[in-house]
Write a structure and sequence with these properties.
single chain; 138 residues; mainly alpha; 434 Repressor (Amino-terminal Domain); 2 domains; 8 helices; 0% strand; elongated; disordered C terminus; HTH-type transcriptional regulator ImmR; DNA binding; DNA-binding; Lambda_DNA-bd_dom_sf; Cro/C1-type_HTH
């Protein structure tokens, strides 16, 4: 298992990347700010369930949090391959993760525009919008 200081430094790094204060993280996980601070400086360790919860909040693998890998997605990829998932299923999961990362980076206004574009594309693709019947004759 990773040293407490390594886990703590990863937590602090991920929290800062998301412009989150210790108090905000503490509130989100229903712990005190001092508990989060103690984890980050390596004085205490979160339990295994909390590590799983933190990995979900930060959208990284538990292996990344624990210092077993430098790839934030590495443990996630391994667990899907381990369970015998197909390439297609794994590819879909990776695409969802890309969409989630995109959504975190753009403004709310741009995200709303993207949703409208996707809505129109899905409407056209899946609801039989036949305005383009002439294209079938080509």
């Amino acid at each position: 298992m990773a040293t407490p200081k390594f886990l703590g430094s990863r937590m602090a790094e991920l929290r800062r990347k998301r412009n989150m204060t210790q108090a905000q993280l503490a509130s989100k996980i229903k712990k005190s700010t001092s508990t989060v601070a103690m984890w980050e400086i390596g004085k205490r360790d979160p339990d295994s369930q909390m590590i799983i919860k933190l990995s979900s909040i930060f959208d990284v693998s538990t292996d990344y949090l624990l210092g077993r890998t430098n790839d934030p997605d590495d443990g996630l990829k391994y667990s899907y391959w381990e369970n015998g998932s197909s390439n297609e299923k794994f590819s879909k999961i990776e695409n969802y993760r890309k969409i989630e990362r995109f959504a975190r980076k753009v403004s709310s206004e741009d995200l709303e525009k993207a949703v409208k574009i996707l809505d129109a594309a899905f409407e056209h693709a899946f609801n039989g919008d036949d305005d383009d019947d002439d294209d079938d004759d080509i």
